[in-house]
Design brief:
The protein has about 290 residues and is α+β, with helices and mostly antiparallel strands. The chain folds into 3 domains: about 5-50 and about 175-255, Jelly Rolls; about 60-160, no CATH class; about 255-293. About 20% of the residues lie in helices and about 35% in strands. It contains 3 helices and 19 strands. The chain has helices at about 80-90, 135-140, 255-290, and strands at about 5-15, 20, 25-30, 40-50, 60-65, 70-75, 100, 115-120, 125-130, 145-150, 150, 155-160, 170-175, 180, 185-190, 200-205, 215, 225-230, 245-255. Strands 1, 4, 14, 16, 17 and 19 form a 6-stranded antiparallel sheet that branches. It has a 5-stranded antiparallel sheet with strand order 2-3-18-13-15, with no helix packed on it. A hairpin with a 2-residue loop joins strand 11 (about 150) and strand 12. The longest helix has about 40 residues, at about 255-290. The radius of gyration is 29 Å and the shape is flat.
């Protein structure tokens, strides 16, 4: 018996939005009038991986030296380890010119995946201070952390506490106010991005099991819905003006199918209980026979 009683497939292009940006927008969806849709599922999605490794508003950190703060601001964009080290070292000028950063050369040293910051003045303490955003993860530190240099001889060094993460987001989340995930959140779909190179597309195609990605539809009579993408911290992701594509299936679930599923579950449990009772009776008879003998 079919799971779907009635349905409507809708194709969404964030470029045709009513308001907002390509990564956070409102759009009209002309659903059938007086429909009885109960669920919504993503059939396919194409999300551009056009967001930067280091984005605007999360591209600076602080060098705190003798209680004086120096802000280091990196240009927005994508980086490799090589380009990041080059740019960082070029930014250490003036009062911070005695700082430098290196990364293990895999040809001549063990590759730890961590940066080493150094400065050649060991007569004062220094710290790297980070806000709670993605930049510290790129440099190998915890979000919102303060990290002191270790003085040794005439120099001070600070090694990344974690391996540097040059993947902006390994997982992104598609949200919509049309959906309810059991009252827990409004996530329509989770997408995995780590296998896609920068400036490509993160694609999703439903396997055909509609219920696998279905969410409860909150309002079937609305003509306007909002959509957005975020990281695991629920922070918005900037697609830098490149549109996303989403195909949704709004449908009314066939309640008879649900009843059938429930009936099958009941029968299965009932049969299992009969088997259990029969096994217990058999054990009881065997025990009585053993006592007689």
């Amino acid at each position: 018996m079919s799971l779907i009683k009635s349905q409507q497939i809708v194709h969404i292009n964030s470029g045709f939005r009513n308001a907002g940006s390509d990564s956070n927008f409102d759009i009209n969806i002309p659903l059938k009038k007086n429909n009885s849709f109960t669920h919504v599922a993503v059939l396919s999605a194409s999300i551009p991986k056009s967001y930067y490794l280091i984005g605007q508003g999360e591209n600076s950190f602080i060098i705190r030296e003798n209680n004086v703060d120096y802000t280091i601001t990196l240009p927005v964009g994508n980086y490799s380890v090589t380009s990041l080290i080059y740019v960082l070292n070029s930014l250490f000028t003036g009062d911070t010119s005695h700082y430098s950063v290196t990364f293990p050369d895999g040809k001549t040293a063990a590759q730890t995946g961590k940066l080493t910051f150094s400065h050649n003045n060991a007569h004062h303490g220094s710290e790297l201070v980070f806000e709670s955003n993605h930049l510290p993860e790129v440099l190998g530190f915890a979000r919102g952390s303060t990290n002191p240099f270790i003085i040794s001889g005439n120099t001070s060094t600070l090694v990344s506490t974690n391996i540097c993460n040059f993947q902006k987001e390994s997982t992104i989340f598609l949200h919509s106010n049309c959906a309810s995930n059991g009252g827990q959140d409004d996530i329509l779909l989770e997408l995995f991005a780590s296998g896609n190179p920068d400036l490509s597309n993160i694609n999703f195609q439903s396997s055909g099991n509609l219920e696998e990605h279905s969410k409860i539809l909150k309002d079937s009579q609305s003509n306007n819905y909002s959509f957005s993408i975020t990281d695991e911290y629920d922070q918005g992701i900037n697609l830098n003006g490149v549109n996303m594509l989403i195909t949704l299936c709004f449908y009314e679930k066939n309640e008879i199918s649900s009843l059938t599923t429930g009936f099958i579950k009941y029968i299965t449990m009932y049969v299992e209980s009969l088997k259990q009772e029969a096994a217990e009776a058999s054990n009881a008879r065997a025990l009585m026979e053993s006592k007689k003998s």
